[in-house]
Amino acid sequence: MAETVYPVPANWAQDALVDEAAYHAMHRRSVEDPVGFWRDAAQRIDWIKPFTTVKQTSFNEADFGIEWFADGTLNLSANALDRHLETRGDQVAILWEPDDPADAARRITYRELHADVCRFANVLKSRGVQKGDRVTIYLPMVPEAAVAMLACARIGAIHSIVFAGFSPEALAGRITDCDSTIVLTADEGLRGGKKVPLKDNVDEALGHCPAVETVIVLRRTGAAVPMVPGRDVDWAEVAAAQSTVCEPEEMGAEDPLFILYTSGSTGKPKGVLHTTGGYSVWASITHQYVFDYRPGQIYWCAADIGWVTGHSYVVYGPLMNGATTVMFEGVPNYPDASRFWQVVDKFGVEIFYGAPTALRALMREGDEWVTRTSRKTLRLLGSVGEPINPEAWEWYHKVVGEGRCPIVDTWWQTETGGVMISPLPGATALKPGSATRPFFGVQPALVDNEGVPIEGAGDGCLVITDSWPGQMRTVWGDHERFFQTYFSTFPGTYFTGDGCRRDEDGYYWITGRIDDVINVSGHRMGTAEIESALVAHAKVAEAAVVGMPHDIKGQGIYAFVTTNANVEPDEALRRELVQWVRHEIGPIATPDVIQFAPGLPKTRSGKIMRRILRKIGENDVSNLGDTSTLADPSVVDHLLANRPQLA
Ligand code: WTA
Hints:
647 residues, alpha/beta, 21 helices, ATP-binding, ligase, ANL_N_sf, AMP-dep_synth/lig_dom
């Protein structure tokens, strides 16, 4: 099969921080001498007390542990703010574009951001927040969200951001899991012209969270929201009372920085914990090299701060590197499908980093929405969150980037803290659909289902064989689950949960999740989570959820539902269940298909044969494989005969 290869453009090979030869030399050193490589690389951070040890890591059960730069101390907010004040205090740090293009943008300089962060850090202190306390952040994409993150980092509080699209139920679960006693929110969010009742959601969530003592409410839309006396305070009011002086707390490199909940193949979402030193090094070095970033360039990562991409590449990485980072409150298709490219032109964006799902949706609207904008400032494009299909890649390259901008297809995970496999624009010839080669310090490997290593070209499970500084350190409150989830499947390695192909050139092609996680519009959903939401409904006896191919979202949600004995499933119930799941988890978990079934295919021991359901979800039913172990094979015939008509 002939595949297209795009060589590194000559100007990039010449001007980039790293060319092909330098990439190979640096990657080789990073794996042959990790201690030397990372001792040097970590000098990019201002340490309060320099570290003397670099790497103490083991993925083996007997001496399991992950520590980087362990005896060093630092403060991330000082690295993102204070150290820029002298050189670029008046440079814009955050360029904020509101949901409605008719409203005013905001330009916040490093000096102003520093003052805002110090002031808000003092607010948190005045509410009794101390080093190590958990602060839940449920905010829309407004600069105050970045202020809140940096203020937590400044005083050593651990932030836990909950995506503002999650339901009160989901929010309550995350507040309770990390025992957070303070929540930061807004009256309402604004996305695509629609209001999101954030404060109402918080009020509903807090019905289940009696330990929460303080809610700080930012006025975004000015809607009248009830304020609970003694608990709820107005953001602007409490901030105005505080000084703009707040010394950064001296943090150990392994002190926690943030928790971010993410879906796994089983159970409730896991609180992924990242620590201060290694994460700072990783977020900043990956941001610099993957985007060939030079201080002052206008850079836009279109992710929401509710996801890890927003943490590492809207806020922390760019600010540590002295960037002007664009923060966008809205959505790609509001007021119309030119929105992204209008913002590019408005601010002169040079680097744009977005998700395949948005590109596919925009591609469907036609080229005209893109070509009517200039985009002449764009130099580099990035992709993240899910595999990018070659068709969308080519469109991004040709239409959006006019053939002149390399595309960095970055593979990574909440757990990895930052980019793991990606082209470097001055070093890597591109193949559409491939994340190409590992970043410095990353040692990917492929193994078969039994854990036997696959050498050379081949297909298998993607594992990482040694630690890197940005790696998560534990699952909040459940270290055993951390080990079991990531290090027990293929002992001695970190298991990513992804399938992957490596080609003859050593390029990696991520094929998608091979566990019970589905990737809907770049958002990870555990099938178990959706199933437990469904069975929580009074009329549902049993449910099984699988992924299905979806043109825009990448994967959609296909749910098989068995109702209780006396319930007649009908269209009204189908609609009710869709609403129910949206309410239980949030709109991102909206099922695309619900198929009612009197029974699910089970083995004689009662285990659901998900393999069969996956094939039905994928509409690949010509060969369902061995069904001889089914307790009742007629169940499958019923499922096949009653598949809903798909659009
Ligand atoms: C998928 C998002 C293919 C993958 C940063 C991974 C990708 C999961 C890519 C993590 C990519 C992310 N190509 N697949 N460039 N980037 N993925 O934790 O399945 O939200 O395991 O982190 O997204 O999703 P998460």
